[in-house]
Amino acid sequence: MSLPLRTLLTCALCGALGAGVGMWNRPEPLAAEPKAEQKQAVKANVTQSVDLFYEPPPAFTSVTASLEWVWGQMDKGDAAAAETLFLKNAGTTEEQRGQIAQQLVHNFRRFDPRVLTRIVLSLPRSQTADMVLNELISEWSRYDSEEVLHFLETLPTDRVNNVVLVRAAFGLARLPAERVATFAATLHDDSRAYLAEGLVEFANQAGSWRNTSAILSKMKAQGHKGAVSVEWTLGVSLSDIAPEEIERWIAAETDPVKRDQLLAGHAWVAGISDPERGIRLDAQIELPQVRANNLERHAGDWLETDRNAALAWLQSAVAKQLMSLEMRAKLLKAYGLEAAP
Predict the structure, then answer these.
(1) Nearest Cα to 141, choosing from 179, 176, 169, 111?
(2) Which of 197, 212, 227 is the last residue before a domain boundary?
């Protein structure tokens, strides 16, 4: 007996679907393990792709040509081009290598600073090599003071010269006081004094002068022979950016020598725009030679800005107490006057 047409169609459709599902679920055969020669070919292709941008440095013809090769390689993605130039030597003399290094440091922001440090430290010690190192530290300290300090901590002691410390101070002034003081403790007294001078010089540029003062208080640096004191330099810097604060600082200082140096630096700057005020501050200085130097400078400035008032003061009883007869005589003689004893 024949089946109804609908039943036949239903059976056919189910059979087709079942076959399709079976094909869909059938597991694919495992990929064959690559043969050894195929693996070697893949490795060779990877190496070849990495070396596509590599070219050996050309023989040296000029600093400009060497730099153009470095820039060209870097544009291709060769970040190690500058180091390659130095490692391969390329027939350069010590002087030419120093000139190339100097130009690379001029372009500091194009490089990883660690690459530049390796290049600079590969140079034989010379005046040029030291100058390049100084410039590198100066540039680097503006961007990453923590890394600069880490570099200084690992730098051979014979390379941590006084100029390097002064140049690094711009960045170090931004770091925590304890961190910088710990590093300063590893330095010789003379080097520590140079670092302190650098910190003070940048007090009004590199962050807060309060942080600088905190560093200095922990460092306890003593001035090196022939240099102005840290306190005098700090007085000069703060007189310009925070005159009220430096006056509070002077009033609170208990060490008479440090107080005089702070006061002398403050008075030195204050007297530039107002010699009379400078003289009033000079009068508070206890150290005779420091007071005399400031008074002579400010009296001379006052004579140029208000001659009559300055001449009258030089002949006053106050001037006789503060200034020597010889100094007053020298200043008055230029105007046809004599100093009374």
Answers:
(1) 169
(2) 227
- Largest separation between any pair of C-alpha atoms in the chain: 154
| DSSP label of 31 | P
Domain end among 202, 227, 252 = 227
- Tokens representing residue 206 in the block: 């590199």
Q: How far is CA 254 from CA 242, 258, 259, in A?
A: 20, 8, 7
Residue 308 lies in a domain: yes
Number of domains forming the structure of the chain: 3
Q: Which residues of the chain are under the pLDDT cut of 50?
A: 1-14, 16-31, 39, 41-50, 206, 224
Q: Return all residues near 246 (Cβ < 8 A) that are at least 6 apart.
A: 234, 235, 238, 239, 262, 266
User: Is the same domain home to 283 and 331?
Assistant: yes
Are both 163 and 214 inside the same structural domain?
yes
pLDDT at 35: 55
Same domain, 76 and 173: no
In contact, 202 and 173? CB cutoff 8 Å: yes
| pLDDT attached to residue 118 | 92
Amino acid at 2: S
Per the structure, the complete domain to which residue 198 belongs is given by 141-227
Can you tell me the distance from the alpha carbon of 311 to that of 248, in angstroms, rounded to the nearest whole number?
Answer: 32
Q: Does pTM top 0.90 for this prediction?
A: no
Please indicate, yes or no, if residue 160 is contained in any of the structural domains.
Answer: yes
For residue 180, which of 228, 131, 141, 133 has the smallest C-alpha distance? Answer: 141
Are 98 and 65 in contact, with CB atoms under 8 Å apart? no
Whether 44 contacts 53, CB under 8 Å: no
Contact 253, 262 (CB under 8 A): yes
**DSSP of 229-248, one letter per residue?**
-HHHHHHHHHHHH-HHHHHH
Instruction: Tell me how far CA of residue 68 lies from CA of 71, 128, 184, in angstroms.
Output: 5, 22, 41
